[in-house]
Each structure stands twice: as structure tokens, then as C-alpha cells.
Amino acid sequence: MGRRQESGDNEVSLFPFLSILACIIGVLTLMISTLALSQMDTEAVVAAEAYEKLEEDLAASELEISDLTKQVQAESGKTEAAKKRSELLKLKRENAGTQELFLVAREEATQLETKLDPAATELKQEPLEALTADLQGYLEQIAQFKKELANRELPPEEGEFSVLPGGSGVGVVPRFIECTSNELVLHHLAQPVRVRVNAIETNKELLKLLNEVAGAAGGKVIFLVREDGVFVYRRAKRFADSLEVENGKLPVLGQGRINLQFFRGK
Fold first, then answer.
1. Which residue has the higher pLDDT, 168 or 27?
2. In sequence order, which residues have a C-beta less than 8 Å from that of residue 130 and are 6 or more positions away?
3. Same domain for 181 and 221?
4. Quick one: which of 262, 206, 197, 261 has its CA closest to 226?
5. Contact 98/142 with Cβ under 8 angstroms?
6. How many CB atoms lie within 10 A of CB 34?
7. Of 152, 181, 204, which one is at a domain's C-terminal end?
8. By Cβ atoms counted within 10 A, which residue in 233, 235, 243, 246 is the most buried?
9. What does the pLDDT look like over 33-52, one tens digit per residue?
10. pLDDT tens for residues 221-238?
């Protein structure tokens, strides 16, 4: 008796189940990868963002300091100019009064000369000599006033910037470096040494000074920053920090000569 063929209607296909299982595994793999990527370098990213924010705050602070410095200088210049004008007007008034006294004295001398006769000349010689001496004194005062007027009309000289030791600097051995618009000026020698901004990292004298400060007890570099020397200061500070040299800064107002006589010999 022949074997009856099995019907294909009773077969079970596993394809839909395997498809769903594969999709679930793919979704889980994608989620795990996404979570892992989102947690990678989180601290580094936060640190970079904080550093950028600090740089922006520093730049804003330096810009504000520069603006305030310019305002202070403008106000100082106005006050000084007003003071000079006041002194000049006062001196002119004194000169006018002296000239009036001179005219009065000359008129009195002329009147005395017309009243004197040859017989009375000897008797009145002493008062006439006194008037002549007064007249000479007035002339000398007028000459002095004119000289002072000429000096007052000259432009004022640039002031001197003196660096004074402070009470908090006990035990510190400072070495001063001036930061101008395009160079550094090393003040640790009797004759200052100038270093161009492009040679900061390669100049032997600067490198020698920084190494000496780094190896000395209490050694510290003080950057004297001019108004137009902020860029040069930043580059020099980065170089000093790379050598682990302790440093600080001190703003310098104006373009006057820097006086470091209180630190000579230290």
C-alpha cells in the first residue's frame, strides 16, 4: 500500500520570529553604542569649554582694564591742564601787578628828579638811591616772572614710574621684565637688554634669566606691562609658565621712565 504524502499546510515557518529577534538585537546594539559614545570624553569636553570661557573672561577683563586706564589718563590730563592754566593766569596777574608797581615807581622817580636842584642833590641823594634800588628789584622780579612764564608754556615732561617694595614681598627676589608694544626689556643688568617679540623663545639672555629665577630660592619674575604691551606680556608669560618660573605682573601707566632704584643690589 503506497505511503501518503504529507501535506505542506502543516509546516511552521520560523522566518518572522528570526527577523524580529535580529531587529531587537540591532536596536539594542545601536542604543548601547549611542550611550557609550555620549559618555566618552565628557570630562575633557567640559574642561575645554571651561578653559575657553576663562579665556573669554580674561580677554574681557583686560579690555575693561585698558578702557579704565585710558579714562584715568584722560581725566588726569584734563586736571593737570586745568591746574597749569590756573597757575598761568595767576602768574599773569602777578606780572600785571608788578608792572603797575614799576610804572608807579618810575613816575615817582621822574617827579623827584624834576624837583631836585643842584644845591639839594646831596641832601636827597639817599632817598633817590633807595628808589633806584627798589626799581632794580622790580626789574629783576619782572625778568624772573617772564622766565617762569616761558617755562610754564613748555609741554609737561612725561612722569617717572617708580616701583616700590611692598610688605607682602618678604623673601621674594624679584627680576623685572618690561613689556612694550614690540619687545621685552630685561632690567636685571646695569645696562637693560632688549629682546624682540619674535625672539622670546630663542633668546639666550632671556632663557638664562628665567633659569636663574627658577633655580633661586624666592625667585620671581615681575612683568611690568605697558598699556600697549599686553600681547607681548601674554607670549612671555606662556614661555615662563612652560619653564615653571613663578611670575606676576604690574601695569605701568604712561610711557615714562621706569625707576627701580629701590631694588638695586638685590
1. 27
2. none
3. yes
4. 197
5. yes
6. 10
7. 152
8. 233
9. 888 777 665 666 666 677 78
10. 989 899 888 999 999 999
